[in-house]
Amino acid sequence: MTLNMGPQHPSTHGVLRVALELDGETVVKCQPIIGYLHTGMEKQAEYKTYTQSIPQTDRMDYLAPLSNNLALCLSAEKLLDIGMPARVQAIRVLLTELTRISAHCVWLGTHAIDIGAMTVFWYCFREREKVLSIYDQVCGARMTASYFRVGGLAMDIPEGLLDRCQKFVDEMPAHVDEYEKLLSKNPIWLARTQGVATLSARDAVALGATGPVLRGSGVQWDLRRHQPYSGYDTYEFDVPVGSTGDAYDRYRVRIEEMRQSTRIAKQAIERIRELGESGEYRLRDFKYVLPPKEEVKTSMEALIHHFKIVAHGFFPPVGEAYQAIEAPKGELGFYFISDGTPRPWRMKVRSPSFVNLQCLPAMVEGRLVADVIAAIGSIDIVLGEVDR
Amino acid sequence: MTDDPKLQPFRTLAPPPSPAAPPLLEPRTEEDLIREELERGILFTTMDSVVNWARANAIWPLGFGLACCAIEMMAIAGPRFDISRFGAEVFRGSPRQADLMIVAGRVSVKMAPVLRQLYDQMPDPKWVISMGACASCGGVFNNYAILQGVDKIVPVDVYVPGCPPRPEGLIHGIMKLQEKILASRVELGPTVPKGKRKGAA
Amino acid sequence: MIALTPERVLERLGERFPGVGFHRPTGDAVRDLTLYVPADRLVEVATFLRDDPELDFAMLSWIAGVDWLPREPRFEVVYGLLSLSRPARLNLKVQVHGEAPRVPTVVGVWPTANWHERETRDFYGIEFTGHPDPRRILLPEDWVGWPLRKDSPLGYEEVAFTHNTPGRKKPSPSLTRLKPKKVKIRAQ
Question: In angstroms, rounded to a whole number, what is the distance separating the alpha carbons of residues C61 and A332?
Fold first, then answer.
């Protein structure tokens, strides 16, 4: 029997269509059909400057918008070959880790509600609201932040942000304990996720999986550790790795990642406090980065640079660069080919959910239909990223 | 609901008896007793108002989140911006059981026929809220892949701008829809086009 | 893990494929190790890169198509490889001609290439010979055209403003109510 889990479905986390061929309750063939949210972002990026593409990235993995912004900015900065001041890096790390916590909260809430545990959904969204208030304070928008720029940040962090972040990271471990108390030893949760949707390490690497899907299968690979960016090599944190590659291991990996993100965020807050609660938030390389407004009003060169960058965009050198970050979902990379003009010749987004979703048939073929829901939830896909 | 007096449907006939006032003439006959009871418990209103009141306070949305706006839609179901106060917390999975389709997110050209099919599957009365800039007019994305506004394929009742609109914005949109429902004429019975009706329209 | 240097990669490739000239792209700012590979040797080179214990490029991270329209050869397919044990990244580029663009598939080497190649074909029309499932993936099945090619339009819709709608000289009449009222300011 062919069953269509259509694009409109409460558990497909967006507009994913899965064509299942069933024999009774057993899945014989599973084929994800995507493209229902295809937005033409890569084509549109060829018509916009690098900075103008930053808001587009917010709408890719819309659960972790600042991560996507960071990936684009780092890739453009690699192309320009500019480095960031320590304070900017610390702020970026802080906000990216908070983003990771909020993305994992949504993942846990929706995964749990698919399997039937509604309470976790409300609790996770309560925590997420706190992170969204932090976003609101820092840049004005709850979700689509566009706060990072090529060369730094859009504006300096406001007063009171660090205290708010401190309060959040102090309270978060208790909340993660709450989620674990509800789920980790729950017999229903264990029955639904242990041994379900197993992906072996060999398959995971062959299928290109990254992020918690890869680490849940036992492969030790985290870009923050092995190809560090934005100063991650100076922070102390552990990278959780699973063993069997089933949905339960991926759940444990992500819960532990939430704790580790809290740890990194604490270190980042201390670092920012040391470097100054207000201070430099952009690189002073006016060929590529907007000069501070005070200087624009007094210095002629700054005015000209400001005009050029705002009117045309900055002119990167001819070449190409690929930079990947460890987004909450996996390896998110941007590949830019520049032809010397302010608009990129090609922007390619290597989105983790697109690649991780390929693992779905390997996980569910031969298993029961109900495991498909658990599998989709445990891979943690976001259709905005899959379809771009 | 709203404070608009025109949209308040209920008016009672007899005022409730105040404790200080002297009792009405002692109810003598049984008929008088019954009449008094009835006068205190009967409401007079119009069919329009009561049906509209019922429809407005129990709008069941279809779970149709497409993109980022869907997350804000999930947030209104969350504890901070509670939509259950408005009777709309049951997001139905099936279009056959839903009244309201909140198009939350960008509609790509691949998704457009699916959206139209879902709209057609919803039974009357149905309403559509176009949530966010992408659903209203294409939003940030003006290219080959995105439909420039969902009103190209379905009739929209309320547009909620924003990218994404704050949950309070969406709730404001739902309240505006409630006002719209309360002010609408109710069509009961099968909808027959004007020309085909026998007798006066 | 000892990091893998670009020179070492070139050495190993040179030892194994002596006749093939792996040249690098020109440009001031090619920030990653990128090598051009001829299309007919692609699968062999890919298998070697994956299986060689020193290089161990076990994961194919991404495949991108590029359209260099006025330039010939018109298309390029870029393969981003990742070596988990080293760790190192390598980009392989294959140049493809504009008329009947065709590249052998690497699905046999890295199964993840399945969807990546489908996406590249969907956007550019480059055929991957030997691909098990060459359907469109992101665009509707019956879409005509290859949207990311430089000669395909962006497809945007003109937004109707007053200046580009013929016959509209002023904004709609209801907007006149928003004109600010003249206020008399009392001098202090």
Answer: 10
What amino acid occupies position A287?
K
- Does B118 lie at the interface with A, CB-CB under 8 angstroms? yes
User: What pLDDT was estimated at residue B201?
Assistant: 43
Write down the pLDDT at residue B17.
63
Shortest distance between the Cα of B111 and any Cα of chain C, in A, equals 9
Distances from the Cα of A113 to the Cα of A121, A373, B59, B95, C60, angstroms: 6, 11, 22, 20, 34
- C-alpha distances (whole Å) from A8 to each of A111, B114, B116, B119, C25 are 17, 8, 12, 12, 45
User: In the predicted model, is pLDDT for residue C172 greater than 70?
Assistant: no
Which token pair is B181?
């429902």
% of chain A surpassing 70 pLDDT: 99
Q: How far is B201 from chain A (nearest CA, A)?
A: 39
In terms of DSSP bridges, do strands C59-67 and B158-160 run parallel, antiparallel, or are they unpaired? unpaired
Chains that touch B (3 or more CB pairs under 8 A): A, C
Partners of A335 in beta bridges: A322, A348
Which band of pLDDT confidence, cut at 50, 70 and 90, is reported for residue B200? very low
C29 contact A CB<8A? yes
Query: Which residues make Cβ contacts (< 8 Å) with residue B149, sequence separation at least 6?
Result: B130, B135, B136, B137, B138
Nearest CB to B110; choose among C140, C155, C157: C140
**pLDDT, tens only, A119-150:** 898 899 888 989 999 999 998 888 888 899 99
Q: Say yes or no for a CB contact (<8 Å) between B145 and C154.
A: no
In chain C, which residues have their Cβ closer than 8 Å to the Cβ of B142?
154, 156-157, 159
Min distance C96 CA to chain B CA atoms (Å): 26
Mean pLDDT of A77-82: 90
Closest-CA residue to A217 (of A178, A246, A196, A255): A246
Angstrom CA distances, A56 to A40, B68, B127, B145, C137, stand at: 10, 12, 30, 14, 21
Tell me if A388 sits within 8 A of A42, measured CB to CB: yes
Minimum-distance CB partner of A37 among B67, B75, B143: B67
Residue C159 touches chain B, beta carbons under 8 Å: yes
The 10s digit of each residue's pLDDT in A42-53 is 999 999 999 999
Region A357-371 average pLDDT: 88
DSSP H/E element including B75 = helix B68-77
Query: For chain C, which chains pass the contact test of at least 3 CB pairs under 8 Å?
Result: A, B
From CA B16, how far away is CA C124, in angstroms rounded? Answer: 77
Whether C129 contacts C96, CB under 8 Å: no
* Cβ–Cβ < 8 Å for A217, A201: yes
Nearest to C9 by CA among C27, C19, C22: C22
Q: String of b and e for A301-329 (b: at least 16 CB within 10 Å)?
A: ebeebbeebeeebbebbbbbbbbbbbbbb
Taking contacts as CB-CB distances below 8 angstroms, the residues of chain A near C62 are 333, 335, 348, 350, 355
- Banded model confidence at residue A177, pLDDT cuts 50, 70, 90: very high
CB contact under 8 A, A42 and C148: yes
Of C73, C66, C124, C93, nearest in space to A344 by CA: C66
